C-alpha cells in the first residue's frame, strides 16, 4: 500500500506531535504527583513514552514509516529509501509537530502555550549519552527492519524505555523532540542554548549506527 507524500507528512506531523505531547504531558503529571521524588517522576515519564511509541509506530508505520525523528529520516535518506525533497519535508513536519506537541501538552495543564526551557543539560557526558542513545535507537530500528520488521514498534518502545534509565541524558535521541522540549520549563525540558549540542550528538550517533550496521548486517561470508 502506497500513500501520497501529503498523507505521509501528516502522519509524521501527527505522530511527532503525539509523541512530544506524551513526553511533555507525562513529565508535567509525573512532576506534580511525585512530590519532588525525581526517581518516581522519571518513571512516570518513562512508561508513557515507551508505550506511546509502540502505539504510534503501529498506527503510522504503514503510512510514512513512522520516523518521527530527523535522525531516523537522515539514515533512511542516506540509505536512499527517501529522496532529498521528501527527507527535508519529513524533517520539517517532525519539527513543527514536536513544537505543536509541547503547546498541546501545556494547554491541557493550563500552562502558557510556550515557555522557553530552563533545565541545563550540557557537557561531555550528556552529549556522549545522546550519541550512545541515538546509536542504540538506530541499531534497534535497522536490526528489526532486517530480521523482524513486524516487531519494530515493540523494539523501539522497549529500547527507549530502557535508555531513559541507562543514559545520563535520559535519552532524547531525537532532534525534533529535543527542539520541542526546548519550549517547556517542565520536568522534561531542556534549555534552548543546550539544544544544539544534543542535536549534533544525536546526528553523529545515527550516522555511526548506519556505518556499523551496514557492515554488520551484510549477508556475506567476508
TrEMBL record:
Where does the protein end up?
Answer: Membrane
What Pfam families does its record include? MIP (PF00230)
Q: Member of which family? A: Belongs to the MIP/aquaporin (TC 1.A.8) family.
Name the SUPFAM superfamilies on file.
Answer: Aquaporin-like
Source domain of life is: Bacteria
Protein name, entry field: Aquaporin family protein
Instruction: Tell me the keywords, alphabetical order.
Output: Membrane, Transmembrane, Transmembrane helix, Transport
Organism (species): Alteromonas sediminis
Q: Does the record bear Transport in its keywords?
A: yes
For membrane topology, the record states: Multi-pass membrane protein
The membrane-spanning stretches of this chain are 9-30, 87-107, 127-145, 152-177, 197-217
The primary site where this protein sits is membrane
MF term (GO), any: channel activity
| Gene3D superfamilies per UniProt | Glycerol uptake facilitator protein (1.20.1080.10)
Q: Tell me the InterPro entries matching this sequence.
A: Aquaporin-like (IPR023271), Aquaporin_transptr (IPR034294), MIP (IPR000425)
Q: Which GO terms describe its cellular component?
A: membrane
Amino acid at each position: 500500500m502506497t500513500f501520497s507524500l501529503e498523507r505521509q507528512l501528516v502522519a509524521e506531523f501527527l505522530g511527532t506531535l503525539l509523541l512530544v505531547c506524551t513526553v511533555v504531558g507525562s513529565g508535567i503529571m509525573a512532576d506534580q504527583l511525585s512530590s519532588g521524588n525525581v526517581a518516581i517522576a522519571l518513571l512516570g515519564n518513562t512508561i508513557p513514552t515507551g508505550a506511546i511509541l509502540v502505539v504510534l509506530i503501529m498506527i503510522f508505520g504503514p503510512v510514512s514509516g513512522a520516523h518521527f525523528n530527523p535522525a531516523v529520516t537522515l539514515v533512511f535518506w542516506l540509505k536512499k529509501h527517501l529522496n532529498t525533497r521528501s527527507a527535508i519535508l519529513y524533517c520539517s513536519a517532525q519539527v513543527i509537530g514536536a513544537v505543536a506537541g509541547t503547546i498541546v501538552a501545556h494547554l491541557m495543564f493550563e500552562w502558557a502555550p510556550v515557555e522557553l526551557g530552563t533545565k541545563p543539560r550540557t557537557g561531555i557526558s550528556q552529549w556522549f549519552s545522546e550519541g550512545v542513545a541515538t546509536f542504540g535507537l538506530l541499531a534497534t530500528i535497522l536490526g528489526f527492519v532486517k530480521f523482524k520488521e513486524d516487531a519494530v514498534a515493540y523494539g523501539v518502545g522497549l529500547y527507549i524505555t530502557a535508555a531513559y534509565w541507562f543514559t545520563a541524558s535520559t535519552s532524547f535521541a531525537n532532534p525534533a523532540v529535543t527542539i520541542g522540549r526546548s519550549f517547556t520549563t517542565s520536568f522534561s525540558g531542556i534549555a534552548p542554548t543546550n539544544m544544539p549540542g544534543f542535536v549534533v550528538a544525536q546526528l553523529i550517533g545515527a550516522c555511526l549506527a548506519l556505518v556499523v550496521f551496514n557492515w554488520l548486517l551484510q549477508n556475506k561470508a567476508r
